[in-house]
Amino acid sequence: MPVAFCVLIFLTDWVSSQKVCSYQDVLDYLNLTTDSSVFKLTRPVLDHTHPTMVELDIILYAILAVIEKTQTFIPFVWATMMWNNEYISWDPAQFCGITQISVPRDMLWKPDLFIYEMIQKDESPQNPYMYISYDGVVTSEEDMKVVSTCKMDVHKFPFDTQRCNISIGSAIHCVDEIRLLPFSNSSRATQFSREVMKTQGEWEFLQLSVASYNFTYDNKQWEHLIYTFTMKRRPLLHVINFLLPILFFLTLDLASYFISEHRGEKLGFKVTVLLAISVLLLILNDILPSMSNKTPVIATYCIVIFALMLLSLLETILVTYLMEIDFGSHDKLELKDNWEEKQEKVKIDDCNTEEKRRTCCSCICKVSDGERQHEVLPLGDEVNNTIQSRESPVLLLILEELKELQKTLDLHLGSRKEGGRSIQWATRINRGFFIFYVTTVLLFLFLIFNEWNS
Ligand SMILES: *[C@@H]1O[C@H](CO)[C@@H](O)[C@H](O)[C@H]1NC(C)=O
Ligand SMILES: *[C@@H]1O[C@H](CO)[C@@H](O)[C@H](O)[C@H]1NC(C)=O
Fold it and tell me: How far is the CA of 122 from the centre of ligand 2 (A)?
């Protein structure tokens, strides 16, 4: 019994000692060391006409920034590269089923892929290891903050959708040496990205699509993979921050129609509103790039509203001026002209009365002469005559004076109304302009929102 037990222990010990393997055993078997030139120096193919197939997968982790002013797009991506190293192969059965080993990155040859749009070196820490598997597939994974340039169209800002490309290709190896293949197609990449997406910030990620493209230069072809990120801006912040305030100020400007024109209160109000708008325009200047082939709709929006408000300010100035003219002439009239005119009128009237008296006198004389012949005197027209015929001529004079006074008074009232003519004009201009203003604003807003919506 003890002998059999001992044999059993020995047997299990022997078997288990046989099954212990380390990664180093595999590396030793492969002759892979830190300075083995076979693995590092050249493209790892046994036949040089054989291209290395590189499979690439890019997934969007986060949209860190989209800067319109500098036309920069900064996504955070997760890139996976896979290629075949024909020097590497082992039988997992010989090494306790080891199928994968991680090795430092600089021990092996890597495809020289780079991103064409990248304008700044990535400084984020790199993953120091790569995986090699028994069939020779090398897998390299990297997280990258890609600071890339992207031509943005801000025509519809802030209701815009941007498309930014990241083109990846080999720097020197042409299509006969390195072939690039996308590991996952567009829909899979989009779905993956949606699942792992951490932050999107202001942007809503819509789609990630991938396309292959052959770049020809000097009779040689380079294969590129172009990843296109499509994202839509969330406009809420800009609407609250910018579009609505301008609209509010415009409404205030429209409402100022109901403020009285008196003493330039309205003028002050309108100038204040215009200043407020120009402060908002400064914000816009911060956001938008100075060069853009198509005028951004928002710029049109601002400029037209600004111009309309300016026009309304000018109109107010005109109306205030007209009113001032009117009030000014009134005061003068009442101070100077009133008296002079009265005097002159009285003089003229005196003459008139003199003449009239004479004619009347003659009339009276005639009448008094033929009083007996005409028993019935005309009552309506010739009351004066009857009065005059009975009372002293002084009364007649007073009556005439009163009449003339009434006439001048009427004339003055008339002139007041006539002076009110410019006030009337002002009111008319005011009303006409208000109607024009409201119509233009409504039409313009309709057109602008239509443009944004299209
Ligand atoms: C590793 O090197 C040894 C001796 O230099 C050689 O016999 C062996 O075949 C090499 N192994 C491989 C996988 O090339
Ligand atoms: C690029 O060139 C390779 C090799 O000639 C070819 O197989 C591939 O289909 C080409 N790709 C495109 C997008 O034309």
Answer: 30
